[in-house]
Every structure is written in structure tokens, then in C-alpha cells.
Amino acid sequence: MSDQTLDAEELARLRELGQRFMRAVPHNNALGLELRAVGDGRAEIFLPYDARLVGNPETGVLHGGAVSSLMDATCGAAVFQALRKPMAIATLDLRIDYLKPATPGRDVIARAHCYKVTRHVAFVRGVAFHDSEDDPIATSAGTFMLGTRTQSRSEATP
Amino acid sequence: MTAPTSKLQQAVAQARAAGDPARLAAYVPYAQTMGISLLLAPEGPHAGELLGVMRFGEHLIGNPMLPALHGGALCALLESTAIFQLLWESELSAAPRTIGLTVEYLRSGRPVDTFARGVPTRQGRRVANVRVEAWQDDRSRPIAVASAHFLVHSEVEAGKSEP
């Protein structure tokens, strides 16, 4: 994500988006997620390390569920960035591979790219890491239903 | 089972001795934060089964307009329930490590309590596969299902673990 080239207008838009993202989604707020960067079909979200999110108190490693929520949120944010107009979305499926445990005490960053949008479905890939995408903690692939505000998912077809 | 050595094994042993799986869930900070616990199914065809439960709270909402539960929160319930299932019914010397999971979201999660049941489909010496379903009021209408696989260190040989 080339956020070095963001002008003031884009920065303001990002800040507004980030605030809306936190205000609008209580679960993202509960995890302390921060939307750090967005681009064309891309999003980057920061998960601060928190002892409340630990899976095994003996090791201090974050629970997989917290990383899963981070992935889901980041993939969803990437879909929003890929849509031409705002609409409600819902996760249809999400696959997550855990490549290595998160290091205790360290924050996690996730990036996602929505690489295809059809009329009803968006396709996304994501990665979570500490320092570099090349040394991932987890990778994910997901699909999201688009325009789910007025219909339940069971009635929606891709 | 050999004498429990890790705190996790102690938590499992104590919860079993008390017949109260909620004690095991209480050992996990993330489960506490989320409102995820464990119970044994009361009377009925599923009596005695270990169930995961995620008590509804505002912090679980992902879509406030519907409102609907966050996909990540459901994912967390499914993954936690699968791990607790392995800990509760198998003799493991360490916590299972998630290799991967695939979640399918079938229905929107309403703002009420959600239940989950994990069924190990195969348990080997190194890898355990678990199928998990989550539902709300009606168990026959799951809102999400997952298949998950874990790295495990079994204390007993493959094929000899308790059912």
C-alpha cells in the first residue's frame, strides 16, 4: 500500500473511514482494531496486543479467534474499498491457515486485497504478520455476499 | 492419564473432576473476553454432550443495522469449541495448535446466545480434524459450520484414544 503519496483529501477520507469503521462495528471496537490504510480494494488493520485476547495464559500467545476476527474485519474492509457504492456485506466463507503462532506481547497487522467483485459476490485474500508479509502468521481466503442489508443470507444466492 | 504437569492439564483435570466444563473455559482469557463458555447439554437426545456457548453481548455485533453477529466472533466460537472438545475428551499433553479452519456462514447471526458442538472426525497421533456447527434457537438450522484441523500431541497412541 503506497500511503506515502496520500494527499490531504485522501488522508481526511481515511480518517473518516477509520472512525466510521470503529464506531459502526462494536466487535472491531472491542478488539481495539485500527484501520491503518486503505487503497483500491485493499485494507490494512492493526490489532494491538492485549492480554484479554490470549488463548493460553501459560504462553501468552493470542487466541486464534482474535486473529480470525482481525482477518474477517480486514477482508471485509478490503471489500468495502472495492465497491463503487456503499452497501452491506456479509461473510459467506472464510478459510484461515495458521502458519506460525503470533509472538506473545507483539501487535499484529493484517492486509487484505479484494481482487474480484461480481454482482453478488466479492473475493478476497488476506495475510497477517508482525513485521513483514513475507513472514506471515496467518493467510486467508474469503468470499463475501454483497447487498445483504434487506435480505437474509439464506435467501441470497451468489 | 499421567499426573497433569501443565497448568492447562490441571485446568482440564479440575474441570473434569467437578463435572463442570465451564471451569476449563474460564481458564482461557480470550473466551472470557468474548463471553464463550462450555456446558453439558441438559436432558434430551443430546444429553451430556459438551457444548460451546457464546452469551450475547453488544461487543459481538458486526453489523449494527440488522443487527448481526460479527463473522469473526462466530469463527472464534467455532474454533474455541473445537479446541475445547479435543481438550475435554482426549488426553493431550499440550493445547492443540490450529493448522487451519474453513468457516461457512449459512445464516445471519441474530443478537442472541449462540451454541456450538464439535465432533472430531478423525484423531491421529499428530493431527486431529473436527467438524463444528453453530446454531441459535433451533439446532436443526445451523448459522455457521466449520471444519478445522489441529496439531496435537496425544498421550495415547492413535486409535486408542477415548471416543
TrEMBL record, chain A:
Classification via SUPFAM superfamilies: Thioesterase/thiol ester dehydrase-isomerase
Pfam families assigned to the protein according to its UniProt record, in alphabetical order: 4HBT
rRNA-binding found in the keyword field: no
Alphabetical list of InterPro entries matching this protein: HotDog_dom_sf (IPR029069), PAAI_dom (IPR003736), Thioestr_dom (IPR006683)
Keywords (A to Z) from UniProt: Hydrolase
Thioesterase domain location: 60-133
Protein name: PaaI family thioesterase
TrEMBL record, chain B:
Protein name: PaaI family thioesterase
UniProt-listed Gene3D superfamilies: Hotdog Thioesterase
Ranges where the Acyl-CoA thioesterase-like N-terminal HotDog domain occurs: 68-150
Pfam families: 4HBT_3
Organism: Nannocystis pusilla
Top-level taxonomy: Bacteria, Pseudomonadati, Myxococcota, Polyangia, Nannocystales
Signal peptide: none
